[in-house]
Write a structure and sequence with these properties.
alpha+beta; five-stranded mixed sheet; about 425 residues; five-stranded antiparallel sheet
């Protein structure tokens, strides 16, 4: 059976999520900012056309944004994550073989539908997503994942496709399109490989497809050689329907204002430890070690610079928030230096093991009865916070004041995940 892949990509996803609940934003320029409202991390097409670059510090474009009435939002990951889950659920109705590649992209295996009009099928799929979520998507179809990605790119840049393109429909014109894709823009080719390929005179996707695979393997890697075969229509990259287990979990934040007080840093680190513990339980894993790190701003040359990290081995693999907060406090005490203005801190959990692969120890670890009690407590904690909102029930060490909290002065409501922020329809 011939292989057929589709790459479904949500158009300008963060900006589209904001538009779903504020229709007045249609056709208006939108930018979404990073944590602490620092840099541009997403743009609508209108904002791109105005020349606002990705990753740019927002203060450089503040005047332009005010003058051109650009709509500016703080990142709202609760909204974006929930909207992404809704899109992926609809895609699963069209094929059970789906790889969620990122928050706004998914590969679909359509091999079982190869005899259908795949273009019509993809348009039906895109319409279903738009109708149910309000999110516009582009769909590229090809015999390999790399070609599906290329087809998606072509679809986005050619409005006459309506955002849907089956690469097979291009016929002899496919070469012209591949020649317009720079080799650095081919999926899987990073900056380092792109520079090597360009030195070899391979500057676009068509040239890479026609390159000698053995030469590419010798000068680059076996991964790039596979991409050559993928561009020739030979499927080498399988659909990864189950994400590989994470080896570590991290929560880190830049602070809204510099942290100078030890009490504020303890509160922040305890909060990061609690959030990381939640992620750990979502992954059904336990951690065997914990790292705390902190740092000042490397750009602030008027104050002393300092950064450090400390790792604490845990006596027994755990996912208990209380145990992880205590370990984080121990690690923080080892590296804390007063009289510094800290910009950022974080907590990382290491050496993860499945939660059912719990090895007992002879000395110094909680007994099995206490472990069962911990599991029940964490289960209740997660249930309450899931139903009533993050932080509804929390450890005292996380504090209430949170003077270090990130700036998110322009964040939209959590329309889909908080009862008190549901949109209201007016007649």
């Amino acid at each position: 059976m011939p292989r057929v892949f589709a790459l479904v990509d949500c158009n300008n996803f963060y900006a589209s999520c904001e538009r779903v609940f504020q229709p007045r934003l249609r056709d208006r320029p939108i930018v979404v900012l990073s944590n602490n409202d620092g840099c541009v991390i997403a743009r609508s097409n209108e904002a791109k056309a105005m020349g606002i670059p990705m990753g740019a510090p927002f203060f450089r474009f503040r005047r332009l944004a005010q003058h051109r009435q650009v709509e500016v939002f703080s990142s709202n990951y609760a909204l974006y994550g929930d909207m992404s889950a809704r899109v992926m659920r609809i895609l699963q109705e069209y094929t059970p073989s789906l790889e969620v590649y990122s928050i706004d992209e998914a590969f679909l295996d359509l091999s079982g539908h190869a005899r259908r009009d795949l273009g019509a099928y993809a348009r039906e799929l895109a319409l279903a997503v738009r109708r149910s979520t309000g999110i516009p998507v582009s769909v590229g179809i090809g015999p390999t994942k790399v070609l599906a990605k290329a087809a998606n790119r072509i679809a986005k840049r050619n409005p006459e496709t309506g955002g849907v393109l089956d690469l097979a429909a291009l016929g002899p014109h496919v070469d012209a399109h591949l020649e317009r894709i720079a080799v650095r823009d081919v999926w899987g080719i990073g900056k380092r490989w792109a520079e090597k390929l360009e030195q070899l005179g391979i500057g676009n996707a068509a040239a890479l497809r026609d390159a000698d695979p053995s030469l590419v393997r010798r000068r680059c890697s076996v991964v790039v050689e596979r991409i050559v075969h993928e561009l020739r229509g030979v499927s080498c990259l399988a659909l990864e329907e189950a994400a590989p287990p994470r080896r570590q979990v991290l929560t880190s934040r830049s602070f809204g204002t510099r942290v100078e007080r030890y009490e504020d840093m303890r509160e922040a680190v305890a909060t990061f430890a609690a959030r990381t513990a939640e992620k750990l339980r979502e992954d059904r894993a336990r951690a065997q070690a914990l790292t705390v790190f902190l740092q000042t701003s490397e750009h602030d040359h008027r104050t002393p610079q300092y950064s450090n990290a400390a790792t604490v081995p845990l006596p027994r693999a755990t996912q208990d928030t209380g145990e992880l907060i205590r370990a984080a406090m121990d690690a923080l005490d080892r590296i804390w230096k007063p009289d510094h203005r800290y910009l950022k801190a974080g907590v990382m959990l290491l050496d993860l093991v499945p939660e059912d692969a719990d090895q007992a120890v002879l000395f110094g670890a909680p007994g099995e009865a206490k472990r069962r009690e911990s599991r029940r407590l964490m289960h209740v904690l997660d249930d309450v916070n899931r139903d009533q909102g993050t932080g509804t029930v929390r450890y005292a060490a996380e504090g209430l004041r949170k003077a270090w909290r990130m700036k998110q002065e322009r964040r939209s409501p959590a329309y889909t995940t908080r009862w008190d922020q549901l949109p209201v329809a007016k007649g």
